[in-house]
Amino acid sequence: MEGQCATTTTRDIFRLARSGIRFYAASAIAAVFAMTLAMPSNASERWFTVELIVFDDLRIDGLQAEHWPVDPGEPPLHDTIELTDWPGGESGGAAHAFRMVKRSEHSLNAVWNRLRSSEHYRPFLHLGWRLPGLGENAARPAHVSPHLGRSSSGTSESVRGGRPVAHGTVKVSLARYLQVEIDLVYRRPELRDADAPSPVPDRFRITSVRRMRSGELHYFDHPLFGVLMHVAQL
Q1: For residues 90 and 95, what is the distance between their CA atoms, to the nearest angstrom?
Q2: Contact 222, 208 (CB under 8 A)
Q3: d(Cα 57, Cα 172) in Å, to the nearest integer?
Q4: Whole-angstrom distance, CA of residue 7 vs CA of residue 33
Q5: From CA 174, how far away is CA 179, in angstroms rounded?
Q6: Can you state the percent helix, strand and coil of the chain, rounding each to 5?
Q7: Ranges of each domain in the chain
Q8: Numbers of helices and strands, H then E, in the chain
């Protein structure tokens, strides 16, 4: 279940986000979708860039916010598509489905930097990829792996070394609105050492289904971490 929203935290995040991102209107381009081929110039499908940042809330007040299950379960991965981390990443030209975007072309880089300079938040995962806009029945979720993307040190995150990680699925489908479905498990080993009256789990899960428009920045809140997501039409 999606975490309870803390009003102050939400305002803080959106203030940081809005100061570092330009919201832009989507423009139509021609494309015919093929899951493994580049987008041809005479096609009609709409393509989108999906981008997300996952970050810790360093204030651990949320640890006592509710009773956390010892085993929150795992996101189902049977129908997912692996994100392709090609050397250099996707850049301009024809779009390829589920190929990761170059870091230099991420639209949330300024947001990432502001979160890094914050006293209360620590970003550790930043991913961007492209996909065609398909209906809910045809769209498939992307597998968000902890081994992909940029960590707070600027390198690929590892599940070793006591660093926070997140993994799971993100599905984006298109009807009248964009629909985003996230199912992420967050692990922060350092919480095991927190001063708490009861044993602290080492994994926490957030699930959410939300409608959004192209170019909007959305915040998914959990008492211990947060997810920022931006989906924009190419």
Answers
A1: 7
A2: no
A3: 26
A4: 40
A5: 6
A6: 15, 35, 55
A7: 7-233
A8: 2, 9
In the chain, the largest separation of any two C-alpha atoms, in whole Å, equals 62
Question: For tokens 């690929």, what's the residue?
Answer: 156
Task: With H, G, I as helix, E, B as strand and everything else as coil, classify residue 134.
Answer: coil
Q: Which ranges of the chain would DSSP assign to H, the alpha helix?
A: 7-18, 109-116
Q: Is the pTM of this model over 0.85?
A: no
The DSSP secondary structure of 7-71, one letter per residue, reads HHHHHHHHHHHHTT--------------TTSPPPTT----EEEEEEEEEEES-GGGGGSSPPPS-
Secondary structure class of 145 (helix, strand, coil): coil
Enter the tokens of residue 77.
């991965």
Per-residue pLDDT tens digits of the chain, which is 234 residues long: 444 444 445 456 556 555 544 333 333 222 323 333 343 333 448 999 999 999 999 887 777 777 888 899 999 999 999 998 765 566 666 678 899 998 889 999 999 999 999 999 999 999 999 999 999 999 999 999 878 865 543 444 444 456 789 999 999 999 999 999 999 999 987 776 656 656 678 889 999 999 999 999 999 999 889 999 999 998
**Looking at this protein, which amino acid is placed at residue 21?**
I
CB 83, CB 148: distance < 8 Å: yes
In degrees, rounded to 5, the angle at the alpha carbon of residue 44 between the alpha carbons of residues 39 and 45 is 65
DSSP reduced 3-state for 204: strand
115 CB burial (10 A radius; 0-12, 13-18, 19+):
buried
